[in-house]
Specification:
alpha+beta; two-stranded antiparallel sheet; elongated
Length: 221
Amino acid sequence: MGKSTILFLLSIVVISCLLIEITAEVFEKPKEYDAKGNEIVDPDTPAHQQQQHHHHRLHRGKVHRRRQPVCVNGRPVDGACECELDFVGKHCEKQKHCQSFRRYRNGSCPECIKGYQGEFCEEIVCYNGKQNVHLTECECDDPYSGKHCDELETRKIYSYYNRKVFLLGPLGAISLIPMCTMYLVCEYFARKRQVKRVGLMMEGQNINVENRLLEKLLNKM
């Protein structure tokens, strides 16, 4: 076989490949794209069917399990919490405060201990404040403190009124002047009444003492 024959055959092969490629481009369906620029695949095409088959294989063995809740004082049963005897709530986070061991059929309390309320005695009572989101603790108003906001501490009282005076500024300081004056006047008359009472008692025992001397003695006590 000569060189001319080989070249002729090669040229025929090249021309055939070019014709096949041109024919495929002419009869190929134009591609379509969505708004995000992704190619839209025809459901009847083998590529789409292969993609669906692959997706099905990935999810065929997947088991959807129901998520169990977190139970603080209990255990999860069928997607809900089964609480212990003295606890209630969605997550068994609230404690009952019943007056006795008696319970109704639904677990509620006939009577609550002091400082609690509600069907299950799970809500705290705040006498000088408000309950938190879970109704289990108190947020006390100044100057009250304690579990139920029913306690007053001297330190907190002083701190509370000092803040009030500081916020009021000069006006608050001026408002203290008449209060202090009234206190001193009341203290003066109280001392006078005390001297008078002691003097009358001593006169009843035939003891004569001057009021001035008696007042000095009482001041030293």
